[in-house]
Amino acid sequence: MRNFKAQTIILVLLSFILGNNEFLVMGILSNISQTYHVSIANVGLLVTAFGIIYAISTPIITSLIGNFNRYYSLIVLTIIFIFGNTLSGFASNYPILVISRVISASVAGAIISLSMTFSSVIAPKEKQGFVVSWIFSGFSIASVIGVPLSTAISSVFDWRVTFFLITGVSIITLILMMVSLPKDFKGQTSPLRSQFELLKDSRISFGILLPFFAMSAIYVTYTYLQPMYGTLGFPAKSLSVFLVIFGVTSLISNQLSGRISDHGGLKIMPKVYLFEIVVFLILPFFIQNKYLGIINLLMVGVIMYLINSPIQIHFLNTAKDSYPQAVTLASSLNPVFSNIGISLGSAVGSVIVGNWGLSPVGIGSSIFAIAALVINLKLNKIIAAKS
């Protein structure tokens, strides 16, 4: 465990790569559209398809590989990811690009889930929340630094270059993983059906509702961050600066998430949700003032990912203690149900904005945040009763 910081950096680099691969398309939609003579709307479906494949494939793959050595599973899945990403760069037509994105999406969730399981073997127990929060932070770093940089590179060179750069960094990361990560990290040999016993435990079946409602609450508002900023009256050219600052607040959110996980975890999250409810309820009023509005929007960034580490550690610890055969499956639950929550939140936000405009999105978010608070309180009672 003495090398856990170096190993953590490698896992963060891995999540940074996955984040770049996932988010990159949103920054080069026009480039891809021009290359293949496909409408931007159709190219946008690459983003939707990625999310759907990610959500479907992650629990399937993690359950199938649960019996295998996790080190070798991670290596093999990373190689498949590198193949899919490289194919994106070489894609001679749009259908091949779609296939390449399906390949990348099908293993991305399982890779991040496996990397989470390594937190229990590379770090002392009191540092596991720290490791998990930094792995999640890799995605925030990708959105703040990696994606804008990749978009800038695409504007100077061909958009394919960005995929090749990701491949290059991925190969370096793969080598570092092979050298540094523990190789004797074996899964529990058990029938596939026994892994799904995990989902019958109320600590899990109730727990999965927490990231679902938490991310729904965030994305009702976050989906419309850009147009809300536009209503505040700041110069249009300042948007990119605001998005970078917002990205920094989301990175802070991940780090605070790790601290919460290491100092109380789910027990103190109800206080967080009370604060979150207030943040969303005052949004319709604060958005009327440019300075109060900007503070309120940045507070959304700060609360954005606070649930990540506490719920991830809860899932992992529950599986390790009661369902060791399903640790890998348990590690996938937070990403999967967060993505489903993101889809619901975005859809609800679309309905609100389409019918009543931007101001009420905070009200919609607060309703989901109240649901998350109720679920959190009930989950804490279930955990206390079973401990």
Automatic annotation (TrEMBL):
SUPFAM superfamilies: MFS general substrate transporter
InterPro entries, alphabetized: MFS, MFS_dom, MFS_Efflux_Transporters, MFS_trans_sf
Membrane topology: Multi-pass membrane protein
Cellular component terms per the entry's GO annotation: plasma membrane
Ranges where the Major facilitator superfamily (MFS) profile domain occurs: 7-383
Superkingdom: Bacteria
A GO term for molecular function: transmembrane transporter activity
Intracellular or extracellular location(s): Cell membrane
Keywords: Cell membrane, Membrane, Transmembrane, Transmembrane helix, Transport
Principal subcellular localization: membrane
UniProt cross-references to PROSITE patterns, sorted A to Z: MFS
Record field: transmembrane: 43-64, 71-90, 96-118, 130-149, 161-181, 202-222, 234-252, 272-288, 294-316, 362-379
Protein name, UniProt field: MFS transporter
